[in-house]
Amino acid sequence: MTVTWTSGYGINEAEPFVEWGPKGGQQGHSPAGTLTFDRSSMCGAPARTVGWRDPGFIHTSFLKELWPNKMYTYKLGHRFLNGTCMWNQMHQFKSSPYPGQNSVQRVVIFGDMGKDEADGSNEYNQFQPGALNTTNQLINDLENIDIVFHIGDICYANGYISQWDQFTSQIEPIASTIPYMLASGNHERDWPGTGSFYGNMDSGGECGVLVQNMFYVPTVNRDKFWYSTDYGMFRFCIADTEHDWRQGTEQYNFIEHCLASVDRQKQPWLIFLAHRVLGYSSDASYADEGSFAEPMGRESLQKLWQMYKVDIAIFGHVHNYERTCPIYQNICTNNEKHLYKGALNGTIHVAAGGAGASLSEFTPIQTKWSIFRDYDHGFVKLTAFDHSNLLFEYKKSRDGKVYDSFRISRDYRDILACTVDSCPSMTLAS
């Protein structure tokens, strides 16, 4: 487990550490690394100008050799030069199941949440009216959630640095208790001349510095915000849509390795996550382009999704909810809508970018592959009951009730069954 927090104390003033251990058992100490950044780290205005606010110091500690699915307690500490300590309150978490562990595992996924003012006062941009509803639904149901993925457009600070502290305060009841994993979005990364795949100014001059320093993800180079992570029976492959993903790039090679290296006997549920829609979407902006997704997205990646039998691909960026049929090359590969038995023969694509930001309109065009659309704020939840049964639910943020769902029920052999695009050529004749 990785623990990250901020303080006003540099390492020359106090040593940061975490005191932790099994709940009710002996507690040990793990040191924390410390970093910060200054105004010159920003790429442009307003992050370098009126939006600048000193972030203080960011501390990260790694709690290692955890026993699977066990409750641990921890508290943050700073030891000053005179030997006295300052303590944070006690928190607790349950460690992850080991890869392949057959236990009930519950995952919440959404994009584009942001933050809002609980007292109703003015909010910068007035752009995220659903953020508190989503946050409160997760807080109220924490006992039934094991891990969260926030897939891009995290807080919409757009260069006003203090907004990050507002966001982290909002999610602290969640992120201090269960893993809070991120993907990078356009409002975190994009800025001209900084290596972004898109040359727009959506990050407000942050160019990825804030998200890369305030949140840890398991990648060697934190500017390359793509990574894989295992959680029990799940393998998650998280792409960074603000860097080039096309065939021949470093990220494309990572995506293929992430999909190809999973042991489907242990981790049968293979999930692809990214911010921008690289698959299918009926959002009006994409429909107006005639692309129904990010241009060049599925053209580059759909053969990988098909070859390695990705179950579900989930995206943000469009502020609505939509679910497709299992699909490959614009064709539904399974006509079922709510109970899938056996092989999907394609990948189900989901837009889940309605967690908080102002909603996006759908096109009036009725595509053959779109099963369910909702113009409202919400999030999705995956529940793996065992190696053969998965439940998908879409919940609205205003009431937490399920408005769309489906189940997958299958055997191990269904994932390994040979399809045309994943068969070795010498077996096609038979």
Automatic annotation (TrEMBL):
<keyword id="KW-0964">Secreted</keyword>
<protein>
    <recommendedName>
        <fullName>Purple acid phosphatase</fullName>
        <ecNumber>3.1.3.2</ecNumber>
    </recommendedName>
</protein>
<feature type="domain" description="Purple acid phosphatase C-terminal">
    <location>
        <begin position="346"/>
        <end position="405"/>
    </location>
</feature>
<dbReference type="InterPro" id="IPR025733">
    <property type="entry name" value="PAPs_C"/>
</dbReference>
<feature type="domain" description="Calcineurin-like phosphoesterase">
    <location>
        <begin position="106"/>
        <end position="321"/>
    </location>
</feature>
<comment type="subunit">
    <text>Homodimer.</text>
</comment>
<keyword id="KW-0732">Signal</keyword>
<feature type="domain" description="Purple acid phosphatase N-terminal">
    <location>
        <begin position="1"/>
        <end position="94"/>
    </location>
</feature>
<keyword id="KW-0378">Hydrolase</keyword>
<dbReference type="InterPro" id="IPR008963">
    <property type="entry name" value="Purple_acid_Pase-like_N"/>
</dbReference>
<dbReference type="Pfam" id="PF00149">
    <property type="entry name" value="Metallophos"/>
</dbReference>
<dbReference type="InterPro" id="IPR004843">
    <property type="entry name" value="Calcineurin-like_PHP"/>
</dbReference>
<dbReference type="InterPro" id="IPR015914">
    <property type="entry name" value="PAPs_N"/>
</dbReference>
<dbReference type="InterPro" id="IPR029052">
    <property type="entry name" value="Metallo-depent_PP-like"/>
</dbReference>
<feature type="region of interest" description="Disordered">
    <location>
        <begin position="18"/>
        <end position="37"/>
    </location>
</feature>
<dbReference type="InterPro" id="IPR041792">
    <property type="entry name" value="MPP_PAP"/>
</dbReference>
<dbReference type="Pfam" id="PF16656">
    <property type="entry name" value="Pur_ac_phosph_N"/>
</dbReference>
<keyword id="KW-0325">Glycoprotein</keyword>
<dbReference type="GO" id="GO:0005576">
    <property type="term" value="C:extracellular region"/>
</dbReference>
<dbReference type="GO" id="GO:0046872">
    <property type="term" value="F:metal ion binding"/>
</dbReference>
<comment type="similarity">
    <text>Belongs to the metallophosphoesterase superfamily. Purple acid phosphatase family.</text>
</comment>
<dbReference type="GO" id="GO:0003993">
    <property type="term" value="F:acid phosphatase activity"/>
</dbReference>
<dbReference type="Pfam" id="PF14008">
    <property type="entry name" value="Metallophos_C"/>
</dbReference>
<keyword id="KW-0862">Zinc</keyword>
